[in-house]
Structure prediction request, 236 residues.
Amino acid sequence: MTTRATHISAELRALASPELATLQQRFFKTGPGQYGEGDIFMGIKVPTLRALAKQHGVVDLDTIAALLHSPYHEERVFALLLLMQFYKKATEQDRESAFKLYLSNTTHINNWDLVDVSAPHIVGHHLATRPRDMLHQMARSNSLWERRIAIISTFHFIRLNDFDDTLNIAKTLLHDQHDLMHKAVGWMLREVGKRDFAREESFLLQHYRNMPRTMLRYAIERFPENRRKAFLNGTA
Prediction:
């Protein structure tokens, strides 16, 4: 670790709660065969991490990379919060470096909360004005976390009322086997619907019969009750 990374790590350890860590390890499914198998927690809540990250401000990429390689979940969360702060204030050249750091460390961005807190703000933001082919490639990755990065990154585009990549990646992921992907895709479809109900409904009418039930339930959560029941009953 860099000297600064060592100091940050010590700060985080001073905030640790063994009791909370035990609860977090259950919540994030760290047992044998579960999606977070082997991950370890200190026991620090996210608002605490966010507040401390703001205090540190802009931190160099070497320090961020060192923290991102930590075995502790909270240190990886903290690294991503710092990377987001770095990216927000960086030059275009430094943003490219931050983007590359992110993509070269997807094996360490290895739980749903890590993806969700960071992917729209770094990957999505960076690709908003650039070719997005890589997201469609990631949607076909063997890595659950890269597939989740692919769809969650499009949240940035959705906020710009740009839905094409979300819907195309959702189509790619319709038959994904993992429940975490069903939830992620359904969530992004719901976000499209908040801004363009007709666009989401049109997509669902084409695909809902072949869609995992969890994905569909997430997607139609905000639908009018009669339309929601029609989709669930297969009569939409």
About this structure: The first helix runs from residue 3 to 14.
